[in-house]
Every structure is written in structure tokens, then in C-alpha cells.
Write a structure and sequence with these properties.
With about 775 residues, the chain is α+β, with helices and mostly antiparallel strands. The chain has four domains: about 160 residues, no CATH class; about 45 residues, no CATH class; about 110 residues, Phosphorylase Kinase, domain 1, CATH 3.30.200.20; about 240 residues, Transferase(Phosphotransferase) domain 1 (Transferase(Phosphotransferase), domain 1), CATH 1.10.510. Helices cover about 30% and strands about 20% of the residues. The strands form twelve sheets. Strands 28-32-33-31-30-29 form a six-stranded mixed beta sheet, sandwiched between helices. A five-stranded antiparallel beta sheet has the order 5-6-7-19-10, with no helix packed on it. A four-stranded antiparallel beta sheet has the order 8-16-11-14, with no helix packed on it. Helix 12 runs antiparallel to helix 16, helix 12 runs antiparallel to helix 21 and helix 20 packs antiparallel against helix 21. The structure holds 2-acetamido-2-deoxy-beta-D-glucopyranose (11 copies). The site of one 2-acetamido-2-deoxy-beta-D-glucopyranose has 4 residues, from loops.
Length: about 775
Amino acid sequence: MVWITLLANLFVAWFLAVADATTLPLPITKIGCQDKCGNVSIPYPFGVGDDPNCYGEAKFKLVCNTKFDPPLLFMERDERVSTPIIDISLLQGQLTILLWISRQCHTINGTFTNDWFYLWLNLKDDYKVSNIRNKFIAIGCDTQAILMDTSGKSFQTGCISYCTDVKSVINGSCTGIGCCETAIPKGVNSINISFASYYNHSKSWNFSRCSYAFLADIQWFKFYVSDLWDFPNRVEYNHIYPDNGQNLPAPPVVVDWGIGNLTCKEALQANQTKVDACGRNTNCSDSENAPGYHCLCKQGFEGNPYLLDGCKDVDECADPEKNSCVAICSNTEGSYNCSCPSGYYGNGVNATKGGSGCTPFKKDFPLTQLILGTSFGVLFVLIGSSVVFCAFQKRKLMKLREKFFQQNGGMFLQQQLSSHDRLVDTIKIFTSEELKKATDNYNERRILGRGGYGTVYKGILSDDRVVAIKKSKVIDKAQIEQFINEVLILSQINHRNVVKLLGCCLETEVPLLVYEYITNGTLHHHIHNQKHKNSFSWRKRLIIASETAGALAYLHSAASQPIIHRDVKSTNILLDENYTAKVSDFGASRLVAFDQTQLSTLVQGTMGYLDPEYLHTSLLTDKSDVYSFGVVLVELLTARKVLSLEQPEEQRNLAMYFVSSMKENRLMELLDERIVQEEDLEEIHEVASLARRCLRVNGEERPTMKEVAMELEGLRVSKKHAWMEQDHEETTHLLGEMPIPALETNPSNTSFNQVTMSILDAGR
Ligand SMILES: *[C@@H]1O[C@H](CO)[C@@H](O)[C@H](O)[C@H]1NC(C)=O
Ligand SMILES: *[C@@H]1O[C@H](CO)[C@@H](O)[C@H](O)[C@H]1NC(C)=O
Ligand SMILES: *[C@@H]1O[C@H](CO)[C@@H](O)[C@H](O)[C@H]1NC(C)=O
Ligand SMILES: *[C@@H]1O[C@H](CO)[C@@H](O)[C@H](O)[C@H]1NC(C)=O
Ligand SMILES: *[C@@H]1O[C@H](CO)[C@@H](O)[C@H](O)[C@H]1NC(C)=O
Ligand SMILES: *[C@@H]1O[C@H](CO)[C@@H](O)[C@H](O)[C@H]1NC(C)=O
Ligand SMILES: *[C@@H]1O[C@H](CO)[C@@H](O)[C@H](O)[C@H]1NC(C)=O
Ligand SMILES: *[C@@H]1O[C@H](CO)[C@@H](O)[C@H](O)[C@H]1NC(C)=O
Ligand SMILES: *[C@@H]1O[C@H](CO)[C@@H](O)[C@H](O)[C@H]1NC(C)=O
Ligand SMILES: *[C@@H]1O[C@H](CO)[C@@H](O)[C@H](O)[C@H]1NC(C)=O
Ligand SMILES: *[C@@H]1O[C@H](CO)[C@@H](O)[C@H](O)[C@H]1NC(C)=O
């Protein structure tokens, strides 16, 4: 099993354009059916047009005259009379229509004027006026309004409003003074209104001598004193009154509807298998007012429950409001699971919501892991409050993919590819489907490693090639071009000791990178794993050191644009079955935005390998790689941990301990006994002296990677080689001249030590 460890040494805040993706609208109609009339959405089972596939039952067939007008609902009594529908709600099983007001006016002498109109309503039996959402309302100061069904036989109700003086009218209160309201009975679908009055509006007042009466959605209606003068002009909706062709004010009225005419229970009995009109992942609920039932998406699903597959899983992980995870949130069908990253225990559910959160294990917690752990913690809280990538795969549509492709610089990459013909072969653009399949839908079991850059999966392509697939973290939009350039540069690197980038995929929210798969684990694993005790000879170590140095030197100089690895360490050096070294992960450090202001508070690189000069300058140079490589050499020589908290203070940082031991001629005490017993101590001493030069505090005094590589290559081929002698002399010469840096004799005096020590202190 290969652990390509990606350490959390860099992070990028990544609350980016994720929200866009989640608001992707779900389909509301069957495929090919009109889903809008005017600006009213028409969800199935409602439909317009003649295709019976587009509406659920005859009663849900609406008329859409033009693209710009709202759909119409026709009356039972007179098929020519219709009311416009301004909203259709699947959730409550309701629709909102516009229904005219009734008006009757008098002269001061008490006689009727000709200016009147009466509302009537006569809906088909399938629709009922909502008794919960609507009220019957009358406005006037000498008004009795009566509401009845068209036959006048099944019910009559009404209210009385009176006032003598506008001062007695309460603004905003419809309670009988200037305005009155009353509830309407259940199951009403036909209506007639009539008026009466005590004084025929013949009192001497200066407001309107009209009575108004109407049905209205109580969420819409509010009474103002000014309505006594001019109610009709305040109504923002209107509709042509068929009897006289006038455009009359028409308040919104909510109408209930239901599927079929059976209850849920009856419907289920009728079919045995399922409630007919409801799709998958739905519940059925009886309609309170209209005949029939309603369908609802089950908890954890959303969409149109009347379509067979209309209810889609809600990605709770995408919205911090919808989940209570503190760290890792994984979406499941209809729900989600919380968990903690490795190194933590607990159920991952926020403690304020009854969970146990995530708590780090305390025992044996080395500094690197502590830093790592906290990084992970922060990262996973970020992740928890945002989107888990996997959840996206499901809902991804072509459009979304294309968007990501554009967003990830796909167009730019394609341009580059077509202008560099020779690149076409070296880098392949994979589709998201291919990689999803290769990783068994990003199966947890395929994870090779996680880190600050992302997650690495083992993948098997359709041609049976085994690859490592890295899912990056979100990249800043401004960095896209740089990212593409990096991909192009990396794809051109063809060095036997560098892990090869095979291709990438830009169709997902974040780019995916595809690397060759290296079988034999990391160098770190081989140095520190007890099982490999006898097999890891000095010879092997020297070859690995030489190959690694060669690869880094190549990156620093040979590539068209120098590439600084920035995170050289034994975990980033992979070994194949022949112990051939493969430097990995150098691309990632360049992929991430290098923003000084963002990173000034963060440690870039891995503690123990980090160039001390960087702590002063915040600049990583090619000499930083030399320093880190020096630490790897020391690791190879000593097989000791790079940072070990359990050691006495002066021994905690391996690099510093090594340098001071060298100075005191105590190298032998440090060496890995496995190699001491072997041949060639002279060779070991030469490598130790090289390592010491790589570890100089002043970057400029360190050899270049090329010099290091040449020296190691010389040792590897034959230490008696002519140029080696010369080089060695030079080395001794330089060493003789170099004053030992002050910090090595007086550690407490230097900022390097202060910084390192304060980090160590923080770790305790
Ligand atoms: C619907 O369209 C009408 C007329 O085109 C417009 O006045 C109204 O504001 C629109 N309503 C919505 C909710 O967009
Ligand atoms: C109301 O009656 C008065 C006389 O009482 C008359 O002058 C006036 O024209 C009448 N107004 C209307 C609108 O009938
Ligand atoms: C409504 O009531 C009025 C009387 O107020 C009556 O003339 C009319 O015929 C009724 N309309 C219907 C449709 O019953
Ligand atoms: C009545 O209330 C509304 C809103 O609450 C306000 O705009 C209006 O000015 C008030 N009218 C009077 C007469 O107070
Ligand atoms: C109101 O008008 C009706 C008919 O128009 C009439 O019969 C009645 O007497 C009038 N009432 C008053 C108080 O003027
Ligand atoms: C109506 O009369 C009241 C007093 O009864 C007065 O305060 C108000 O200003 C008058 N309004 C108009 C529009 O004349
Ligand atoms: C329900 O509808 C069916 C056909 O649509 C009809 O035959 C039946 O009589 C209706 N039942 C009730 C109780 O309305
Ligand atoms: C019952 O439901 C199934 C699945 O929707 C459908 O195929 C079948 O025709 C229905 N049976 C009856 C008797 O309605
Ligand atoms: C749906 O039905 C299931 C049982 O069939 C019930 O547990 C669940 O609470 C219901 N959900 C809703 C939203 O009604
Ligand atoms: C836990 O929930 C509370 C309240 O909802 C919230 O304030 C807090 O930030 C949450 N903690 C974490 C770690 O998400
Ligand atoms: C989610 O958690 C439950 C209980 O902890 C477990 O049974 C289930 O398999 C988990 N589902 C997934 C997809 O991890």
C-alpha cells in the first residue's frame, strides 16, 4: 500500500463559487413539457398544451394563451370565464388566482349609482377556495356584505362594517369599523356576493359612499384608513371582468387542489403497490379541503414529488445550515453522516446539537502531527461548512461540468494544447466520468492519502493502468492561468526520478490530477519502518539520495522555467519496486496560490525540513530545497525522526542536533547502526559532510542542488574518481574558512532558534 502523504503545510481559504453550483434548479415538468406561462412556473401535474403526457389529470390542464400572459383557470358555469393563476405551489397543494372585487355605490341621496360590479366564482368541483388562507372582507362605513354559494342554499355568511367618523377607524385593523372580515367555510367552490345597508350611505361624510366586498389571501390583505376613500386603486392586481370588459381590481385568492378523489389510504388500497401519482422517495398526505391527496418529498429530499424521480437527495453537506457536522460530513441518500478525521475521536456531530464533536487523541502526539492535526481540524471545519466534493458527482449535469471546465481554465488549456502540438500526447484531459469510474466513485477504500492539497485516490483506468488521482482543493480563480501553466510544465517533465503527471480533469468543481502509481511506499516508510530493518542497505540509500538530488537539480535548472519543490521530505520521495526514487508532489506546491499576505501567518513547508532562512525572509528559494534535502540526507544517515518531542531539548530538531554533533566530532553516535556495521565509513563521512553544508543557515553558503547531485553521483559511481578528489579538496577548503554560525554555539541568541523553540513550546 502506498501512502502518498500530502501534508497540510499550505492552506488556501476556499469559500468560493460553491454556492452557485448548489442552486442548480431541479426539473419541475416532464421532459419536453412547457414549464412556464408568462412568468408563472407550471410544475407537473399541472401542464399546458394538448400533450396528455404533460399534465397529470384533465383537471390540471391549464390554458396558456400567450407566452407573456399568466395561465388561466376556467369556471364551471361559464367556460368563457376564467381567472388568471399567478402562482402554483406543490408544497401546500395550492394555487393563487386573481378574483375581482364587488362594489356597490350610492349617491348622497341614498340612491344607487350605475357604477357597480359583483364578483362571482364558480370553480370546478376539483378546486376549493382555501378556508385557511382566505377571508371574506368588506370595506365601507354603512355596509352589510353577504357571502353565499351561487344557489344561496348551502351556506350564507357575511359581516357588517359601520362608522360615522373617520377618526374612529383604526389604521391596520379590520374589526368592524370601516372594515370587517369573516372566515369562509370549508369546501366552497361557488360564490355570490350581495350588499345591504342601513342608511343607504346617506350620512354626511366626505369619504367614499361605496361598499366593497371580496375574497382575499390574508397574507396579502391589510386594511388602511385610506381604503375608505380609494380602495380599488391600491390593489396591485387586476383582471378583465367578462361581463362588461372593464379591467377591475382583483386581489389574490388561494385555491386548494388535490390528486384524484381518493384519500391516501384508499389510493394505496386501490393499487396495492404505491400511491399512484407520487414518485419515488415521497410521502402521501390527504388534502384537507379539496378532494384527493398530496405528495411530499421525504425528509432529506427535495424537488417535484409528482415526477417519478422528482425528489432528489438534498446535499446537506453543501449547506452548513442543514448539517450539524463539525469536521467531515458525508452525504447519504436522504441524510448525511458526520465523522472525525483520523487522529480524532467522537461522532463528529456538533456538541450543541447533542453530539460529541471531534477530540484529538492525546497520547504520543508528535509535533508534526499536532500541527497537522490542527490544520486538518481547521480544514475539515471549513470543509464541513462547505461542500464535500463527492456529493457533487451525482448532481453534475453537462452544464455544470462545462462551467467548471471554463472556470478551471479548460479553454485556456485547450488553446495551449493546440498551439503546442507535441504536448497533445503528453497530457491527457480525462472526463469526470472516467475518473469517477477509475476510483469506484471516490470510494473511501481507494484513498491513498489526504493532506492540505487534497485527497489522493488509487485509480484503475479502463485500460487497466493503475494511477494515483489527486483531487485538489479549490483554486483561486486568479490562479487559473498559472495552474494551467503548471500543468503544462509538469507534463513536459520527463525525468525517471520524478513522478509523472499523466493528465488532468477540469470538468469537476476542482481540478483532478492524474499521476503514475508508485508501488513501494515512501522513503520515510522505509527508513523508519522496523520491518525493513535489514533490507535497507547503505548502498540503496546512497542511490536514492543521488537520484533524488538529480531530480531536484533537474527541476531547478533543466526545465524551461525553474521549479522549486518547496516541500522536499522523505514522505514525498516515493520508491518503486526496484527502489528507484520518484520525487512526488512538487506540482502541488506550485498549484496553490502563493499569496504573501495570505501565508504570512502560516508555515509553508514541513516543520523539521523547513529552511530556517525562510522564517526570516518568508521567501522560499532553490536553496530551501537544498536545506530540506540536507535533512533527508541526515535522515538516511541516522534513521532518526526529524522532530522528536520526547528527546532532550537540544536533540529535538534532528538537523540542529546533527550539525552540533558533527562539530563535536560525535557523528558516530548518531549514525544508524544498520549502516555503521557495513562497509565504507569514509563514504558515509563524505555524505555527512555534504549534508552539513546543505544545512547551513545562510542559504547562499549552501551548495546548489546541481553540486549536491554531482557529488552524490560521484560517490555512487566511484569515490576515487578524479573530479571527486578536486571537489573534496574544495569542500575542505571551504569548510576551513567558514566560521561556525553563531547560533550553533549559542542557540538561545538567534531568531531561528527562538522561532523553532516557541513552536516546540506550543506543541507541549
Ligand atoms: C410577472 O410579469 C408581469 C408582467 O410581465 C410583471 O408585472 C410582474 O412583476 C412579473 N412578476 C414576477 C414575480 O416576476
Ligand atoms: C340629491 O337630492 C338633492 C335635493 O335633496 C338634489 O338637489 C340632488 O340633485 C340629488 N342628487 C342626486 C345625485 O340625485
Ligand atoms: C347572485 O346574487 C344576486 C343577488 O344579489 C343575484 O341576482 C344573482 O343571480 C346571483 N348570481 C348567481 C350566479 O347566483
Ligand atoms: C396606516 O398604516 C400604514 C402602514 O402601516 C401607513 O403607511 C399609513 O400612513 C397609515 N395611515 C394613517 C392614516 O395613519
Ligand atoms: C334605502 O334605499 C331603499 C331603496 O333604495 C329604500 O327602500 C330605503 O328606505 C332607504 N333607506 C333609507 C334609510 O333611506
Ligand atoms: C374629511 O373630513 C375629516 C373630518 O371629518 C377631515 O379631517 C378630513 O381632512 C377630510 N378629508 C378630506 C379628504 O376632505
Ligand atoms: C372519483 O373519480 C372517479 C373517476 O374520476 C369517479 O368515477 C368517482 O365517482 C369519483 N368518486 C368520488 C367519490 O367523487
Ligand atoms: C399501480 O401502480 C403501478 C406503478 O405506478 C402502475 O404501473 C399500475 O398501473 C397501477 N395499477 C393500478 C390498478 O392503477
Ligand atoms: C413519511 O413517512 C414515514 C413513514 O412512512 C414517516 O416516518 C415520515 O415522518 C414521513 N415524513 C413526512 C415528511 O411526512
Ligand atoms: C456548533 O453549533 C453552534 C450553534 O449552532 C455554532 O455556533 C457552532 O459554531 C458550531 N460548532 C462548530 C464547530 O461547527
Ligand atoms: C452512516 O452512519 C450509519 C450509522 O452510524 C451507518 O449505519 C451507515 O452505514 C453510514 N452510512 C454511510 C454511507 O457511511
